[in-house]
Amino acid sequence: MKMDQRILTELADLESRSQLRQLEAARDIDLGSSDYLGLASDPRMKHTVREALDAAPRVASTGSRLLSGHDEVWTALENDFACWVGAEAALYFTSGYAANIGLLSAIVHPEDIVFSDSANHASLIDGMRLAKGRRIIFPHLDLNALEDELRRNQSISGARFIVVESVFSMGGDRAPLRDLAVLAARHHAELIVDEAHATGVCGPDGSGCVAEAGLAGRVFATVHTCGKALAAAGAFVCGSEPLRRFLINRARTFIFNTALPPYFASQVSAGMHLAADAETERTHLSGLSAFLRDKLERNGFDTAGSNSHIVPIVLGSNDTALAFASRLQARGYGIRAIRPPTVPPGSARLRLSLTAKLSQRVLADLAGAVVEVRDEIAADHTVPLSR
Q1: 131-173 per-position pLDDT tens digit
Q2: No. of H helices and E strands in the chain?
């Protein structure tokens, strides 16, 4: 079979299962954005970038940081970021995906075991696959199941790692980090926490859920993404100074990756400092999230235990989720249907990603529109109204 035909066949298969995706611009009211604090359009960010670009000696890094692409501005930024989140050291990667893959593939050896939450992000999963260690997936946030697995695998010769997100990207629920830290210590395991959706939003001065739990400097590694609340790009792996030096030498997504240009460090730094001072925005965002969850749950919608600024509406079938998304988009809401394999089969959903630029009035109107759409679909017998 020619490759084009094989590709077309696979695309047709995706379409038949209502899993075919395509690129679309955001609608009027964007409810899919990770710009949680509204910094992406903040004039202070734009001013910083303009100044940094004007002062920069070049607009490209010209190579990886181990060759020609390093600049001391990155070391200074890494030190500042580590101080912010309460870690000893930090290393910057060009994306959160690169950070997770680089970290896990470097530190996990074939004789090691990684205990991974079933709802972990694809970047964590791919990092574990590349690592070639044994991977044990435990049911989402089921600490009893995790402890059973830790007990069953306590006699191995290698290291053991527990890997979770602090705020899960598809459910919006938070990991019980203190309990996980106790389990890790009891069973001599290392805890790794992906803070992608918590950085800038949760914890003291937005420093994340690990700091909020009083665990700063007490977990093996945290990963903080800059392309969400910090309105930049890239990510930091934070941990000990030996871990930083080890990753410089062993993380392939750092070693072989072209660095970002030095001026971009100013954008990341500005996002970090503005986020640290954004207490008003964090408080507003927390209130919006609680308001929307209450509206939806009172009307019988399943928000999957969310307790954060990510509020899902679990609908069940792909067709139902697509029908809801389409009708809400027609009303001007930028909402996408999230379907397998991003979420487990039978749990297709709408994922509402809230930002501090929204208002209670907008969210009240949204909740009313979701109820209207449910009533419309219930009257339209061609679309299954499933959960």
Answers
A1: 989 999 999 999 999 999 999 998 888 999 999 999 999 999 9
A2: 14, 12
Quickly count: other Cβ atoms within 10 Å of residue 118's Cβ.
13
Model pLDDT for residues 249-281, shown as the tens digit of each residue: 999 999 999 999 999 999 999 999 999 999 999
Domains and CATH numbers, the chain: 24-39+278-379 (3.90.1150.10), 56-276 (3.40.640.10)
Q: At what angle do helices 96-107 and 241-250 cross, to 10 degrees?
A: 90
Amino acid at residue number 283? T
Is 79 within 8 Å of 90 (Cβ atoms)?
Answer: yes
Q: Which residues contact 291 (CB under 8 A, 6 or more apart)?
A: 360, 363, 364
Look at strands 348-353 and 310-316 and give their pairing: antiparallel
The C-alpha atoms of residue 203 and residue 115 are separated, in whole angstroms, by: 25
The answer on pLDDT for 15 being more than 90 is: no
Strands lying side by side in the sheet with 113-117: 89-93, 235-239, 221-225, 190-194, 160-165, 113-117, 134-138
Cα separations (Å) of 276 from 6, 17, 43, 203, 219?
Answer: 50, 44, 17, 10, 22
Q: Is the pLDDT of residue 18 over 70?
A: yes
| CA end-to-end distance (rounded Å), the chain | 39
Which positions ≥6 away from 26 have C-beta within 8 Å?
Answer: 32, 33, 334
Cα(282)–Cα(308) distance, integer angstroms: 11
Is residue 86 pLDDT above 70, yes or no? yes
Give dist(CA 383, CA 106) in Å, integer.
47
- Residue positions counted in the chain: 387
